[in-house]
Specification:
The chain is an alpha+beta fold and 617 residues long. The protein folds into four domains: 82 residues, no CATH class; 96 residues, Beta Polymerase, domain 2 (2-Layer Sandwich), CATH 3.30.460; 224 residues, no CATH class; 182 residues, no CATH class. It is built from 19 helices and 24 strands. A hairpin with a 2-residue loop joins β1 and β2. α16 runs parallel beside α18. The protein is globular and about 75 Å long.
Length: 617
C-alpha cells in the first residue's frame, strides 16, 4: 500500500521514495523566454492516491523503478485525475516484446468484428509479454461478462490463420467484469471489454450546459425525443459562433459540448434521444434557476474558467481540504469589475499562505477569502460580496461521498478498509470477525442517551444455513458485511471522541458529505457561504436554492418530525444487502433533510460510503 509524506510516497516492503509531482506531472518543454511563475494549484495527492488504491484490483498500484507500469492501473488513475479537472498522465511506454501483426489478426477476427460493434479501439500497454487493449463496445453493461464468454468461444471455433499455440479464456478482474485473455505465438494478449456509453457526459459537459443555458438567448421548452435535435442545433450554432467568447466557458469545454451536440444530431434511436433530452432538461432547469438570480443582479456573469480555478486553488491551499470540500460551488456568479477592485487584491494578499503557515495567518487568509462570498441569491447582492457560489446537482444525483471524511482520523487507509489478509478470509473467519464487531458496535451505541439507535444486526449463522454451499456471491455478502462493520467500528472508536459520541461522529460525517466541513482554523470556519441548486427533471426552475452558511447549526432531529421524541438513527442491515444503510433526519439551520448513508461495494474489492439520499423536506 502507499504511505504518504507530503507528495512523496513509499511502497510497502520497498524503501524507495517516489515524488508524485515528478511522476504524474505532464512533461514540459524548456521555456524559450522568462515568464512569471504562477502559483501551482493545490493538489491533494493523499486523496488521489487513496482513491486510486481503492479502485486498483489488488488494492494498490504497481511501481517498478519509480514508474507506474500497469496500464489498467494508470487508466484508472487518469480517470480519477480527469474527474478532478487535472491533466491525465502518459501511459507507460510500449515494450517491443510482442508482434503487432498478431494483435491485429486477433482484433480483426470474426469473434471481435461480428460479436462486438467496436466504436473505438485503443492499443494498450504491454508489460513484458502481456499486452492489453481496451475495446469500447455498444453492448450493455449487464451483458459484458456474457459477451466476453461468447467472444472466447467464437475465437476458439474460428481461429485466424497464421496463429500458433492458441488458447483463449476469460478472467474476472472485478465481479461481473470479465477480461478476454488470448495466447498466441508465445505471447499473452488481454482485452478489456468496456461499455461505450453513447450518452455519457463528463463534468465539463454537464456543468458547461448549465452555464450555457444561463446565457442562452432562446427560451427552450421541455425537451423530448421529438424536439431535442432542434434544440441541439440551436445550441451548436450558438457555441460555434461564440466558441472563444462565452464568459466562464473555456474553449476546451466548448469543444466537448459541441462534440456532445453533434452526437445528439447524429442519433436516430428514440430511446437514446430521450436520454439526451432528459439530461438537457436538467441543464435547462439549472439555467432557469440562474435566471432568477440575474433578474435581480444583471451586472454579474457566470464563471467556471481561470478565475474560478484560481479562487478554488487558493481556498484548498490554505484550508488543507480538497477544493470542493472548502467550497462545493461548481460555478461562481461574479460581479463585473470586482476582479480588479476586490478579488485580485485579496488573492495577492494571501498568495504566500498555505496549510503549513501559522494558524493565525491561515485563519486571517481564510476569513479574507471567504468574505468575498455572498449569502444572497434571490435578492440584490451587496457590492462587498461579489461572488455567489452555486453547487449544481442533477435531479437524481448522489448527495456526496463520505469515505474521504475518515482520512484525517486514520494513519493508513486500512484502518477502515480491508487489507490483503481480510480480503482472503474464509467463511468461518468472516463470521467470527462479524460477530466480534457487532458486539463491539452494540456496546458503543448502547451507551447513547440523547439519541435512540435502532439496529437489527445481520444474522451470520442464519445466513450460512440459508446458503449451505456458500457460493462466491454469498461469500461476498460476508466480506462486505465485515467491511461495513469495520468502517462503522472505526467511526465508533476513532471518529467519535468518546463512547457516547457515536451520533455526533455520524452527524459530522453527514455534514462532510453535504459540503459542510465543520473544521475551523483558530475560530474561523473554513467554508464560505454557498447555494445548492438541484435540477428539476421537467426543466423548471428551483424557486428557492438551498443556502448553506459557514458554521450552520447542524443537528439530529426525530425521524418522525415530532420534536417531543428522541432523535433516532436507524441502521438497516438486511440479510441480502452487501453492506448496510443508516437513516436519520438532520436540521441545517431552518432546513430539514432526510438522510440515507450507504455502506456498500464500490465495484471492486473495497467498500464505499456515500450519501445516497439527502432530500429537503
Amino acid at each position: 500500500m502507499l504511505t504518504a509524506n507530503s507528495t512523496y510516497y513509499t511502497m510497502k516492503n520497498d524503501t524507495s521514495t517516489y515524488n508524485l509531482d515528478e511522476i504524474l506531472a505532464p512533461k514540459q518543454q524548456p521555456a524559450v523566454e522568462a515568464i512569471v511563475e504562477q502559483p501551482k494549484p493545490y493538489v491533494n495527492w493523499d486523496e488521489i492516491l487513496t482513491e486510486w488504491s481503492y479502485r486498483c484490483p489488488k488494492g494498490y498500484p504497481t511501481v517498478v523503478d519509480g514508474v507506474f507500469t500497469e496500464r489498467e492501473e494508470v487508466v484508472i488513475l487518469n480517470e480519477i485525475l480527469e474527474e478532478r479537472g487535472l491533466n491525465s498522465i502518459r501511459l507507460p511506454e510500449a515494450a517491443n516484446s510482442y508482434d503487432p501483426n498478431v494483435a491485429d489478426k486477433i482484433l480483426s477476427s470474426p469473434a471481435f468484428t461480428d460479436l462486438v460493434n467496436i466504436q473505438n479501439k485503443k492499443q494498450g500497454t504491454p508489460t513484458k509479454a502481456k499486452i492489453s487493449y481496451l475495446l469500447y463496445s455498444d453492448i450493455k453493461d449487464k451483458d459484458r461478462a456474457t459477451k466476453s464468454d461468447e467472444i472466447v468461444k467464437a475465437f476458439l471455433k474460428n481461429t485466424p490463420k497464421g496463429l500458433s499455440q492458441v488458447a483463449a479464456t476469460t478472467i474476472e478482474r472485478e465481479r461481473g467484469k470479465k477480461n478476454i485473455v488470448i495466447k498466441a505465438n508465445g505471447y499473452t494478449y488481454e482485452f478489456i471489454l468496456k461499455v461505450y456509453k453513447e450518452t455519457g457526459t463528463d463534468t465539463d459537459v454537464k456543468e458547461g450546459f448549465s452555464v450555457l443555458l444561463g446565457y442562452f438567448p432562446d427560451a427552450l421548452d421541455r425537451l423530448d425525443y421529438n424536439n431535442v435535435k432542434d434544440a441541439a442545433k440551436k445550441m451548436k450554432n450558438y457555441l460555434g459562433s461564440n466558441k472563444t467568447n462565452i464568459t466562464g466557458l473555456p474553449a476546451s469545454v466548448v469543444s466537448k459540448m459541441i462534440a456532445f451536440l453533434t452526437k445528439v444530431l447524429n442519433t436516430q434511436d428514440r430511446k437514446t434521444l430521450k436520454t439526451y433530452a432528459d439530461f438537457l432538461n436538467q441543464s435547462i432547469s439549472h439555467g432557469n434557476t440562474f435566471g432568477l438570480f440575474f433578474e435581480k443582479n444583471e451586472d454579474f456573469y457566470i464563471e467556471r474558467g481561470d478565475l474560478f480555478n484560481e479562487i478554488r486553488s487558493a481556498g484548498a491551499r490554505i484550508s488543507g481540504y480538497p477544493a470542493d470540500k472548502w467550497c462545493p460551488g461548481d460555478v461562481y456568479f461574479i460581479k463585473n469589475g470586482s476582479e480588479a477592485t476586490a478579488i485580485d487584491p485579496i488573492l495577492q494578499q494571501i498568495e504566500s499562505v498555505n496549510k503549513s503557515s501559522p494558524p493565525a495567518d491561515r485563519a486571517a487568509a481564510i476569513a479574507k477569502l471567504n468574505s468575498l462570498f455572498s449569502p444572497t441569491y434571490s435578492y440584490k447582492v451587496s457590492d462587498k460580496t461579489p461572488i455567489v457560489a452555486v453547487s449544481l446537482k442533477m435531479a437524481d444525483a448522489q448527495a456526496g461521498k463520505l469515505k474521504s471524511g475518515l482520512e484525517e482520523f486514520s494513519t493508513v487507509n486500512t484502518d477502515y478498509n480491508l487489507d490483503k489478509t481480510e480480503l482472503s478470509y474464509t467463511q468461518d473467519i468472516y463470521i467470527k470477525r462479524i460477530k466480534e464487531l457487532q458486539k463491539n458496535i452494540q456496546s458503543y451505541i448502547g451507551q447513547e442517551k440523547q439519541t435512540k439507535f435502532t439496529w437489527k444486526p445481520f444474522d451470520a449463522q442464519q445466513f450460512v444455513k440459508d446458503n449451505p454451499t456458500m457460493s462466491k456471491d454469498a461469500l461476498e455478502v460476508l466480506r462486505f458485511k465485515y467491511a461495513a462493520y469495520k468502517a462503522l467500528h472505526f467511526i465508533c472508536t476513532k471518529v467519535a471522541k468518546k463512547p457516547t459520541d457515536v451520533d455526533t461522529a455520524l452527524l459530522g460525517l453527514v455534514s462532510f458529505g453535504l459540503g459542510l466541513v465543520e473544521a475551523k482554523v483558530e475560530s474561523t470556519y473554513i467554508n464560505p457561504p454557498f447555494f445548492k441548486v438541484i435540477a428539476n427533471a421537467d426543466g423548471s426552475a428551483m424557486i428557492k436554492p438551498q443556502f448553506f452558511k459557514p458554521g450552520s447549526q447542524v443537528s439530529l432531529i426525530p425521524l418522525s418530525g415530532n420534536m417531543k421524541q428522541q432523535p433516532e438513527i436507524v441502521i438497516t442491515d438486511s440479510q441480502k444487502f452487501k453492506g448496510l444503510v443508516i437513516d436519520m433526519a438532520v436540521a441545517v439551520g431552518d432546513d430539514v433533510y432526510d438522510i440515507s448513508a450507504t455502506f456498500r461495494p464500490n465495484g471492486s474489492t473495497q467498500l464505499t460510503i456515500e450519501l445516497q439520499k439527502a432530500h429537503l423536506r
